[in-house]
Amino acid sequence: MSSSDAHAGHHNPNLAHHFDTIEKQDHAVRLGMWLFLGTEVLLFAGLFLGYTVYRHFYHDAFHHASRSLNITLGATNTVVLITSSLSVALAYYAVKVGKRQLALGMLAFTIVCACGFLVIKYVEYAHKFHVGSLPGKWFNDPSLAKYPGANLYFTVYFLTTGLHAFHVIVGMSVLLWVAKGVYKGRYTAEYYVPVELGALYWHLVDLVWIFLFPLLYLI
Amino acid sequence: MSQPSLLADSDQPVMPAVNYLNADRGVKSWLFTLDHKRIGVMYLVSVLLAFLLGGIFAMAIRLELTTPEPTLMGANTYNRMFTLHGVVMIFLFMIPAIPGVFGNFCLPLMLGAKDVAFPRLNLLSLYLYWTGATIALAGMIMGGTDTGWTFYAPYSTTTPMTVFPVLVGVFILGFSSIVTGLNFIVTVHTLRAPGIGWMRLQLFVWAIYGTSIIQVLATPVIGLTVMLAGIERVGGFGFFDATKGGDPVLFQHMFWFYSHPAVYIMVLPSMGVVSDAIAAFSRKNVFGYKMIAYSSLGIAFVGFFAWGHHMFVSGQSPFDNGAFAVISMFVGVFTAIKVFNWVATLYRGAIAISTPLIYICGFLFFIVFGGMTGIAVATVSLDVHWHDTYFVVAHFHFIMVGAVIMGFLIALHYWFPKMFGRMYHEGWGMVASAFIVLGFNATFIPQFLVGNAGMPRRYFMYPERFTALNVASTAGASLLAFGFIIILVYLIYALLRGKIAGDNPWNSRGYEWMTTSPPPKSNFHETPVITSDPHSYQNPGEEVEHVVI
Amino acid sequence: MAHAGNEPTSKAESHAGTHGAGRYFVIWAILLAFTGITVWTGYMDLGSLNLPLAMTIASIKATLVILFFMHMTEAAGANRLVFSASFIFLFVMIIGVFGDLWTRNPMTLPSSAPSTEGPEIEVIEAHPGPAPSHH
Questions:
Q1: Distance of CA C38 to the CA centre of its chain
Q2: Among the four residues B15, B359, B459, B536, which has the most C-beta atoms within 10 Å?
Q3: Looking at the complex, does the CB of residue A38 fall below 8 Å from at least one CB of chain B?
Q4: A14 in a domain, yes or no?
Q5: Distance of CA A130 to the CA centre of its chain
Q6: How many domains does one find in chain A?
Q7: ipTM value of the model?
Q8: Interface residue ranges in chain C relative to chain B, Cβ cutoff 8 Å
Q9: Which residues of B touch C110 (CB under 8 A)?
Q10: Same domain, C26 and C66
Q11: Among B62, B239, B165, residue whose Cα is nearest residue A162
C-alpha cells in the first residue's frame, strides 16, 4: 500500500518540502478535501433553503408541478449516479491494489455514466422548454397556470439541477484528470491519494442528487 | 528624543544579511512566490491600498454630511459613496486583512512550520483577492452601484445601475476567503512542530483557527446568495421577486447568514492579536488561557445562530425576532470572557508603555462600548427605534474600527520588527495613537447621539437640528484620517531607515520570535524545539519581571 | 501530554484497503433497493407523511454513501467533524428561516394572496431613468 517508511519519504517525489512524511501530507490533503466538501454542502444549502421556503408558500403548486416531471427518467438518473459511485469506488480500490487496467476501466465507466446523466437531463430540460415549464417570468405552461407559484417550482428545479449539472461536469473533468494520472503511472498502489480525492468529489455529486431526486420528483 | 526600548541585552542588534525579503530577487520571484511570508507582505500592500481607498470614500461621506443641504454631491453620488465605502472596507479590507497579512506571515512561524499546508492554494487566494477586488471596483466606479454593501433585493435585482460585476467580484473574493480559511485549518491540524500540542498553541493561532472555521462554513452561502441575485438580474427567475411569487426577505436571510458570522471573521483575529500582545506588554502570564482559547471557538459557533438580529423590522416573525435577540446576547458572553481575562492579564503586570499598548487600551475601551451597544441593539424593542439610524452605524464602527482596526494597528506595530527587521519611531507612534484614539471618539460618539435622536443612515440630507453633531463627527474623522497618515509616513520611513530591531525587540515568548527578524526563507534555521508556553513569562510563584525602559 | 498530534489519527487511514471490493457491491445493491422503495412510496398518497418518509430514505442512502463509499468509517476524526459540521449548519439555516415563515402572520405569506383569477395587475418593468443630476 502507501509507503510508510519515513526515510523513503525523503526521496518520495510526491512529498512537498514542508511536510515531514508522506503520511502527514496525505492526512493534510484529505482534511483539506473534506473541508472543501463541507463548503460544497453549504453552497447547495441555500438552494435547499429556497426549496423549503417556496414549497411552504406554494404547497399545491409544488405538488402538481412535481407530477409533471418524469419519474422514470429521474429514477434512471438516480440509478445511473449510484452505479457511477460504485464504479468510482471500485476504481479507487483498483488503484490501491495495483490493478491499473481495472482502474482505468472503472474510471471510464464512471465518466460514461456521467455523460448518460447529462443526456437524460438534457432530454428533461428540452421537454420543459417545449411545454413552457420555465422558471420565474418565463413560465407559461397552461396546464399548471391555475396553481400560483408553479413558476417558482421550476425556478428551484432549474437552479438546483443546473448547479448540480455544473458539478457533474466539474466532477467529470476531475475524473478525467485522475484517469490521465493513472494512465501515466503517476498514481499507483504507492501513491493513490489524488484518486481518493477525485472519488470523494464524485460521491458528493451523487449525494446531492440522492436528496434532489425525492424532493423534486416524489412530493 | 531617545527611543524607549525593551531590548533585553545591550548588544548591538543585527539584521540577517539574507532573509526572505532578499533571498530571491525580481518581480517574478514575488508574483509567483510560494513563500507565505512574501504572500503576507503582498496582502499587506494590497489591503493598505484598499484601506486608503475606503478611507477616501469615508471622508467623502463625512464631508458631504457637514451641512444639512447638499454639500459636495447629489443624492445618487452619495449613494455610490457609501456603497463604495462599505464594499471596499468590508470585502477588500476587513475580511482579508488580519488573516491575509498576519495569519499568513505568522501562523507557520507560530507552529514551527516551514510553510502553510498548501502554499500554491495560498498564492491562489492572493490572485483571487486581486481579481475579485478589481472586478468589484471596476463595476462600482464605472457603473455607479448604489445599492449599499448589503445589496438588498428587490432594489439590487431591478436597479438599472451596475450591480452584476460587483456581485461577481464579491463571489470571487469569497473564494479567496474560503481558500485561506481551509489552508489555515489544515495547517494548524497537521504542521505543528514537536512540542506544540493544542493547549500550547498561541492564542492568535486559536483565533485564526476559529476565524477559518467561519470562513469555510459561512462564505459559500454568500457565494450562492450573490450568484442568485446576479441570476435574478439577468434571468428574472423570481427567486427574490415578489411580483413573481418570490420573497425578498429570503435574500436578507441568506445574506445575513453569512454576513453576521462575517463580523466575527473580522473581529476574532483582532482579538487574537490582543491576546498575544497583551502578555508581552504586561510581562505576565496570560490569564485564563483556556477560557480565551475556547471562547474563540464559542464565538465561531454561536455566531452562526444570530443572523436574524439584522432583520428585526424586515417582516420577520416576532418569534424569530425574540429567538435571535436572545442568541445574540449570548454571543456577547464570549467577548466578555475575553475582556475580563485581558484585564486580569494587565492587572499587576509590568506594563511596558509603547504604541501597541496604547492601542490595546483603546481596543479594550472600544470593544466594551461597542459590545455593550451591540447588546442594546440586540434588544428588539430598542432596535425598532434604532434600526437604520446612526446609532447602529456608530455601534458597528466601534467594533469595526475601534476593535478590528485597533487590532490591525497593534499587529502592524508588534510584528513590524518581525517582518522587516526594523523598528518604527516610538515617539511618532504615540503621537499618531493620540490622533487615532481621540479622533475615533470624536467621530463616532456623536453618531450614537445623533442616531438616537433619529437621524437615519444612508441619508445625504438631514434636519437642521442634527448639524452640530454631524460637524463634530466630521471633525473627528479628520483627526482620525490625520492619525492614519502619520502612521503611514513613519512606517514607510522605518521600512527604509528605521533602527535595526534585532531578533526579539519586545522580548516576547511567542514562538515566531524564536527565529531571526526578518526570518529566513525557510522560517527556521533548525526545526525549533519547543519547551515553553508561548504566553508564559513567569514560573509559578515567580515575580513579574520588570524591564527597564 | 504535549505531542504534536500530526500523525493521522486513524491508523486505518494509511492502511485502508485491507477489505475487498465486495462490500461496494453490497452497498450498491442496498442503495438500489432503497431507491426502488422511495419511488414506490412516492406513488402512494400518504398525505403529509410523503416528504418525511422520502427524506428518511434519502438520509439512509446518503449515510451509506458517506460511510462506505466515502470511507468515513476509516476517516480521521477531524474529517468527520468537518463534514458533519457543514450539515449541522445547513439545518441551522433551514430551521432559522423556517421558524420565521411558520410563525409569520399568515396574511403576510404569498400563499394567501388573492387567486390568479383576480383583476389583472399590470407590472411596470424597470427601465433606465433619466441621467442622475450632477450637483
A1: 17
A2: B359
A3: yes
A4: no
A5: 27
A6: 1
A7: 0.91
A8: 1-6, 78, 85-86, 89, 92-93, 96-97, 99-105, 108, 110, 123, 126-129, 132-135
A9: 242, 245, 247
A10: yes
A11: B239
C-facing residues of B in 246-265 (CB < 8 A) are 247, 249-250, 253, 257
How many structural domains are present in chain C? Answer: 2
Which among A78, A203, A219 has the least Cβ separation from residue C51? A219
Looking up residue A135, the CATH number of its domain turns out to be 1.20.120.80
Structure-block grid coordinates of residue B417: 520588527
- Residue C26 in grid coordinates: 453490497
Q: What is the mean pLDDT of each run of 10 residues along chain B (549 residues)?
A: 44 81 89 95 97 96 95 92 96 97 96 94 97 95 91 91 94 97 96 90 96 96 95 90 88 96 97 94 90 94 95 92 95 95 92 92 96 96 96 97 96 96 95 96 97 95 95 97 97 94 90 90 82 81 64
All domains of chain B in start order, with CATH: 27-514 (1.20.210.10)
Any CB–CB contact under 8 A between A170 and chain B? no
**Facing residue for B236 by CB, picked from A38, A50, A136:** A136
d(CA B504, CA B513): 6
- For chains A and C, what is the number of CB pairs under 8 angstroms? 158
Q: Is the alpha carbon torsion for A179, A183, A189, A191 positive or negative?
A: negative
> Residue B422: beta bridge partners?
B500
C28 and C70 both lie in a single domain: yes
In a domain, C44, yes or no: yes
- Taking CB atoms and an 8 Å limit, are C97 and B323 in contact across chains? no
Task: Give chain C positions within 8 Å (CB) of A35.
Answer: 82
Kindly report the backbone phi and psi dihedral angles of residue A93, in degrees, each rounded to the nearest multiple of 5, phi listed first: -60, -45
Domain of A105, in residue numbers: 45-217
- Candidates C102, C91, C100, C92; CA nearest to B322 is C100
Omega cis (within 30) before B518: yes
Residue A164, all three cell numbers: 448540480
